[in-house]
Design goal:
heterodimer, A: 277 residues, alpha/beta, two-stranded antiparallel ribbon, 26% strand, globular, B: 6 helices, 12 strands
């Protein structure tokens, strides 16, 4: 249980994003975007970043298999469309070649002389923001477990899958704690499935990042998400520390009341699997 | 300086064309250069090769590094790249660099090292000196590398850059060996010694062809040696 397996084309790892698309995700955040839209933007940027890590001059190497499950109303759907809709987890090269569209966006970059200049960038979009209905979290975790049980069987020596779950509300189809526990019991010889939870907020309250216990959490819902979260493996503790976030052996992969910066950090830290080979 | 062995073994033997290590030697001028291109790079193989070739004949200066960047850029046309390749190109390519220069007049060795490739001076029985690392745990650090993104190399203009060079005397040593290694081999060697296996130096110094290097690396990967491109140069100098 070391989370040290080499990640290579013959031994890839998997990232599965579980995204709450319930009605409350329409609420606006401090940056003027809805929670759903901002999460979609960060998720698309994270997918692009994963692809960039795997891309070399000759092409994109399949170090990762990636999937997105969106849940709302009473259903769980594949969050990716077109050629990516046939399976939940797809090789990263297939994701690279099948965005829904590529938008031209502008970002401000350092001009090398102390100022900022606009730079035109390509922004691929795979995942659209949606928000409506309830929060069938139990169904979503069950679907994730079905997909990852098969994946772990097929990749017994790989770095285990990481599930990044983003939600802003309580489950409307039952208590998800036991299901989350069962999901975390799946795994490979290198470790159990990692389940990290991000609670997205637009309340403006202080965020709680990677807590070591549930004693300081504000309510039973936050405590539930804490208990549903895996401990951060040492290399991810280190990534968190590099971002100035205190993390120890007891820290869980859980952020409560996360706003813009925390959402970005959560996706970045959660997708830093061990070194690629 | 006498070169006793020079060779490399790829992280995946069936994909030796993907080996991103590069080395270059001028034995009659006492010069050894080793570069280890980083896996998470757009074109580390080319970048490492450019650096190895350049610094075999030239010193590490800003001007010479800029010349390397220009050569790298001339080999890639960003405008023709797909969005993902352009993003990877913008992220950059990275490599370590070791430059060893024998100074026989003063019986000394000048070393420049950036990143986690290492040089060891040994009498064949024990490590006399090593640079830039001396413990296996140091290989767990994220090293600063030479980048194709020019601003990432700005630190070379700072005082920090003095930490990248050292000079060793081998005067009086009847048999002095220099072992230049990329990180997987270096980390393994240090850990073997820390674990009380001093004969590891003897095993390494006996290597005389790439089959023997492949045999050692393949065997040790079954243990704790990391799977990575592995380059080894062994040289002998005389201090008498």
């Amino acid at each position: 249980m070391s989370y040290t397996a080499e990640i290579s084309r013959t031994s890839p790892t998997a990232f599965l994003f579980l995204v709450d698309q319930s009605g409350s995700m329409q609420d606006l955040m401090g940056n003027g975007k809805s929670k759903a839209q901002f999460v979609a933007d960060v998720l698309n940027r994270t997918l692009a970043s994963l692809i960039t890590r795997c891309t070399k001059s000759e092409g994109t190497r399949d170090y990762f298999e990636v999937g997105v499950l969106g849940y709302s109303g009473s259903s769980v759907e594949n969050g990716l469309s077109g050629a990516l809709n046939a399976a939940v987890l797809n090789p990263i090269s297939l994701i690279e070649s099948n965005p829904l569209r590529i938008e031209d966006r502008t970002k401000r970059v350092d001009d090398g002389a102390g100022g900022l200049v606009n730079q035109s960038i390509k922004f691929p979009v795979w995942f659209e923001a949606l928000a409506g209905g309830g929060t069938p979290m139990c169904s979503a975790i069950t679907s994730a477990a079905e997909v990852l049980a098969a994946w772990c069987d097929a990749h017994p020596d790989s770095y285990p899958p990481t599930v990044l779950h983003v939600t802003d509300g309580e489950s409307t189809d039952g208590d998800p704690e036991n299901l989350a526990s069962q999901l975390q019991q799946l795994g490979t010889r290198d470790g159990c499935v990692l389940l990290f939870n991000l609670h997205v907020s637009s309340s403006g309250g202080d965020a709680i990042r990677f807590p070591t216990s549930d004693s300081g959490l504000p309510d039973s819902y936050a405590s539930l998400l804490f208990r549903m979260s895996s401990a951060l493996p040492p290399h991810l503790q280190k990534v968190a520390e590099e971002k100035g976030i205190k993390a120890t052996m007891e820290s869980r992969g859980f952020i409560y009341n996360g706003e813009v910066a925390e959402i970005v950090d959560f996706f970045d830290i959660g997708t830093r699997a061990a070194q690629l080979r | 300086m006498e070169i006793l062995f020079q060779g490399t073994f790829a992280k995946f033997s069936e994909r030796s064309d993907e080996n991103e290590d590069a080395f270059s030697l001028l034995a009659n001028q006492g010069r050894i250069v080793v570069c280890d291109g980083a896996s998470e790079s757009f074109d580390a193989k080319i970048w490492a090769r450019i650096l190895a070739d350049k610094f075999t004949s030239f010193d590490l200066t800003s001007e010479n590094l800029v010349s390397c960047l220009e050569e790298y850029e001339s080999l890639h046309n960003r405008a023709d790249l797909s969005w993902s390749k352009a993003a990877a190109y913008d992220r950059g390519s990275f490599s370590t660099l070791i430059v060893v220069q024998d100074l026989p007049d003063t019986k000394s060795i000048n070393i420049t090292a950036i990143g986690d490739s290492v040089v060891v001076l040994t009498d064949g029985q024990k490590i006399i000196k090593s640079f830039p690392y001396s413990k296996s745990e140091e290989f767990l650090l994220a090293p600063t590398l030479l980048s194709t993104i020019g601003k990432h190399n700005d630190w070379l203009q700072s005082e920090e850059s003095f930490l990248c060079s050292t000079e060793w005397s081998y005067r009086g040593m009847s048999s002095a060996y220099l072992i230049c290694m990329t990180d997987a081999l270096g980390a393994w060697l240090f850990r073997c010694i820390e674990d009380g296996s001093p004969d590891v130096l003897e095993r390494v110094l006996k290597i005389r062809n790439e089959d023997e290097l492949a045999e050692l690396v393949t065997l040790e990967r079954e243990g704790f040696m990391r799977r990575d491109d592995s380059t080894l140069i062994i040289a002998r100098v005389s201090g008498e």
